[in-house]
Structure formats: structure tokens, C-alpha cells
Write a structure and sequence with these properties.
By secondary structure, this protein is of the alpha+beta class. Helix content is about 60%, strand content about 15%. The longest helix has 28 residues. It is built from three helices and three strands; from the N terminus they run αβββαα. The chain has two domains: about 30 residues; about 100 residues, no CATH class.
Length: about 140
């Protein structure tokens, strides 16, 4: 009877250690740029006590940044997707204002062109920050 209990205990411990190692490797496999197949799926990963939510989608910054995996669906931080969408909306606003400013007369044309140029410069810095801190492969 003791031998059976010892064997069962050994089997249970082995099964437990296998399940822990599978969960640990699964957690590390979910990061920006890792391929995924179910579009729209989400996964929450805790790293050093911080929860990060990833979405299986095409990384919105992939086309603009060489440090971001290109291709089909990859795990992408949810903050990457939402921040990039907000920045893209600002870019669309600037693009819509450009033709209107071009039709203005001086000195308004010069003043607004200067303001839009400054806004564009700041927005490019924001895009770079989003791409490097939230969208880059490996995060």
C-alpha cells in the first residue's frame, strides 16, 4: 500500500511540475510580435506584478517601424492598439486642416501653417514613443 501511495505521489508531483512549466512557457510566449492565430483573442500576462493585456491582431505600428514584426496577426499590447489609434486620429485631424490652411490669406496662412507644423513635429515624437514603448517586438 505504501508503494502505491509513493508511486501515485510521484506521478502527481510530476504532473504538477509539467503543468507549471507549461503555464510558465505559455506566459512568456505572449508578447509583442509573437504570431497568434485567433484574431481578436486576448491574453493577460503578469510580469513582475504588472498585468499586461495583449490582443491577437495586426500591430498597427508595423508598417511604420522596422523594429516591429510585420505579417499577419501577432500578440500586440492593448495599449499599443489604443494609443496608436488615438495618435492616428490626431494625424487625420492635421491632414484635414492642411488644405483649409492652404486656402487662407496672409498672415493667417503663415500663422496656422506654423502651428500645424509644430503639432506635426510633436505628434511624430508621440508616435515614436508609442512605437518604442508599447508596440515594439518583444515587449
Amino acid at each position: 500500500m505504501a508503494k502505491k501511495s509513493a508511486v501515485l505521489l510521484a506521478i502527481a508531483l510530476t504532473a504538477l511540475s509539467i503543468s507549471f512549466s507549461v503555464n510558465a512557457s505559455a506566459a512568456t510566449a505572449v508578447k509583442n510580435g509573437v504570431a497568434c492565430s485567433k484574431s481578436g483573442a486576448s491574453s493577460v500576462v503578469t510580469v513582475k506584478g504588472v498585468k499586461k493585456t495583449y490582443i491577437c491582431t495586426v500591430n498597427p505600428a508595423a508598417a511604420a517601424n522596422p523594429n516591429i514584426a510585420k505579417g499577419g496577426n501577432t500578440w500586440t499590447l492593448k495599449t499599443c492598439v489604443s494609443y496608436y489609434a488615438a495618435a492616428k486620429s490626431q494625424q487625420d485631424n492635421i491632414n484635414q486642416q492642411l488644405p483649409l490652411v492652404a486656402m487662407m490669406s496672409e498672415p493667417d496662412k503663415t500663422n496656422y501653417t506654423t502651428q500645424l507644423t509644430a503639432s506635426q513635429t510633436n505628434l511624430m515624437k508621440i508616435f515614436a514613443t508609442i512605437e518604442n514603448n508599447y508596440c515594439k517586438t518583444g515587449l
